[in-house]
Amino acid sequence: MMKLLRNPEVKRTAVVYAMISALAVTASFVWAWQFGILMTAVCGIFLFVYLSATNRRYERIGELAADINKILHGDEHVSLEKYSEGELGILQSETYKMTVRLREQQQKLQEDKVYLADSLADISHQIRTPLTSINLLVSLLLEEGITNERRQKLSQELYDLLFRIEWLITSLLKVSKLDAGVVSLKQEQIPLAEFIQKATEPLLVPMELHGIAFHVTAQGTFSGDILWTCEAVSNIIKNCMEHTPDGGRIDVSGLENVLYTEIVISDTGSGIAPQDLPHIFERFYKGGDSGEKGFGIGLFLARTIITAQNGTVKAENQTPNGAKFTLRFYKGTV
Q1: What φ, ψ does residue 330 adopt, rounded to 5°?
Q2: Measured distance CA(251)–CA(325) in Å, rounded
Q3: Quick check: 192 and 222 in contact, CB under 8 A?
Q4: Do you find a cis peptide bond into 320, omega within 30 degrees of 0?
Q5: Beta carbons within 10 angstroms of residue 263's beta carbon
Q6: What is the pLDDT along the chain (334 residues), one digit of tens a residue?
Q7: Best exposed site among 14, 96, 116, 272 by fewest CB in 10 Å?
Q8: Contacts for 134-143 with beta carbons within 8 Å, 24 or more apart?
Q9: Please, which residues bridge with residue 264 across strands?
């Protein structure tokens, strides 16, 4: 009780109550000594009840503060339900909400740490392989008596490896920007045929060199970020090109309706292995037929860009052979 009176708020209230009680007792004694004794007892009882109730309230506040401290130090077995009644109910409710939010944030931070560790391990593995090849090529270029033809061939291989590393780093930076939410995707509108043409321009020459026929049929418009979505569509078409044999065919069709804009990309290649089909959009996933040049980042980047614009992408095999990718950009929430 003496500890309670050291609380400034309680002390001020008790002093005011004591002064009012003293005036009431004095006035009662002036009226009649019997009333004075009765008023003294009543005031004493009320003061005792007030101090007892206040002391109990502060004890429960102290218990609540101790439990919150345990939660902040990682104790997940502390329950706040015992404070759900009485005047501490509102405080308990808000504290419980805060506790749930803190635990969710802690879980999210833990998941982010695991994700970051896995990402660094994956990136290290992806870059280490071409770097090992680069070191080998440099050592071969430093050999004495190397012919000009040999030097030119090794230099070309070295250039290709450096280009692959540059592409990988650029793609990873794009993915990181999208994951961090620092990219502001624009809302632009363009005829669908023109959009597909812009997305496939960088691949027309390689397809011509391999004798791959390329056909586009599209009608309607596309709404979204043109540059980023061109990157996504280009990566998917590039994947189809890499798995289509010389003399094959790639078809792109597009249409728009009241619900969505759809782009379908199909090829006459070897298709997607059934065990790879559920995983081809995962980061750094390389199918059995992807070869040594693949990093497993192009389709992941494509899906990230598409889903960031309220879109979906689906991969499947078609009959009799080849793969088909269906992209849908919805005009409302799905």
Answers
A1: -80, 145
A2: 11
A3: yes
A4: yes
A5: 27
A6: 556 556 677 677 777 877 887 887 788 777 777 777 887 888 778 777 777 777 777 777 777 777 777 767 666 666 666 655 666 666 666 677 777 777 787 787 787 777 667 666 766 766 777 788 888 888 888 888 888 888 888 888 888 888 878 877 887 788 777 777 777 888 899 999 999 999 999 899 889 989 999 999 999 999 999 999 999 999 999 999 988 999 999 999 999 999 999 999 999 988 888 888 888 888 777 766 665 555 678 898 899 999 989 999 999 998 888 999 999 999 865 5
A7: 116
A8: 134/158, 134/161, 134/162, 137/161
A9: 253, 326
| Amino acid identity at 86 | G
Q: Compute and round to an integer the Cα radius of gyration of the chain.
A: 36
Q: How far apart are CA 332 and CA 334, in angstroms?
A: 6
CA distance 142 to 135: 11
Three-class secondary structure assignment of the chain: CHHHHCCHHHHHHHHHHHHHHHHHHHHHHHHCHHHHHHHHHHHHHHHHHHHHHHHHHHHHHHHHHHHHHHHHCCCCCCCCHHHCCHHHHHHHHHHHHHHHHHHHHHHHHHHHHHHHHHHHHHHHHHHHHHHHHHHHHHHHHCCCCCCHHHHHHHHHHHHHHHHHHHHHHHHHHHHHHHHHCCCCCCCEEEEHHHHHHHHHHHHHHHHHHCCCEEEEEECCEEEECHHHHHHHHHHHHHHHHHCCCCCCEEEEEEEECCCEEEEEEEECCCCCCCCCHHHCCCCCCCCCCCCCCCCCCHHHHHHHHHHCCCEEEEEEECCCCCEEEEEEEECCCC
Asked if residues 248 and 214 have their Cβ atoms less than 8 Å apart, the reply is no
Neighbours of 41 (CB within 10 A): 11
